[in-house]
Automatic annotation (TrEMBL):
Gene3D superfamilies: 2.20.25.10, 3.30.300.20
InterPro entries with a match to the protein in the record: KH_dom-like_a/b, OsmC/Ohr_fam, OsmC/Ohrsf
PANTHER family: PROTEIN YHFA (PTHR34352)
Record-linked SUPFAM superfamilies: OsmC-like
Organism from which the protein derives: Methylomonas paludis
Protein name: OsmC family protein
Pfam family, one: OsmC
């Protein structure tokens, strides 16, 4: 896996993935940025959410569970010292489906957290306290 980060100006950068997709990252104005993109640490949080959501949907669909939607809300805390690393991250999955089994969703969330989500496992090994919960919504 490869990526390239190109500085634009101030604290603005364009990141391009090895698969050819680009994203703008920036800092807040009080740090020299123009606030035109997500912060780099937000990218890590988004990556964790995307990785976990991918796993949960993949597991449910492979199990032929009638999932119709997934929204994952993440909240994170960072330490007050430099480097300001994440100390806690919580993922709340809102899974929608028709007659969707609570047990199937619970299993998918657990498998993602403990076995499949590379981002979650990596951050956990780095000392970040990661927690998960979910709700099943009929629809």
């Amino acid at each position: 896996m490869q990526a390239t980060i190109k500085w634009l100006d101030g604290r603005s950068f364009v990141g391009e993935s090895g698969s050819g997709h680009a994203v703008v990252m920036d800092g807040p104005p009080d740090h020299g940025g123009r606030n035109i993109g997500v912060r780099p640490m937000e990218m890590i949080l988004l990556g964790l959410g995307g990785c976990s959501s991918f796993d949960v949907i993949d597991i449910l669909e492979k199990g032929r569970h009638p999932v119709t939607g997934c929204t994952t809300e993440l909240s994170a805390e960072r330490v007050d010292t430099v480097p300001s690393v994440f100390s806690k991250i919580h993922l709340h999955f809102k899974i929608t489906g028709k007659n969707l089994s609570v047990g199937a969703v619970e299993r998918a969330v657990k498998l993602s957290a403990e076995k499949y989500c590379s981002a979650s496992i990596m951050l956990g090994k780095a000392g970040v306290e990661i927690s998960h919960d979910f709700e099943v919504i009929e629809g």
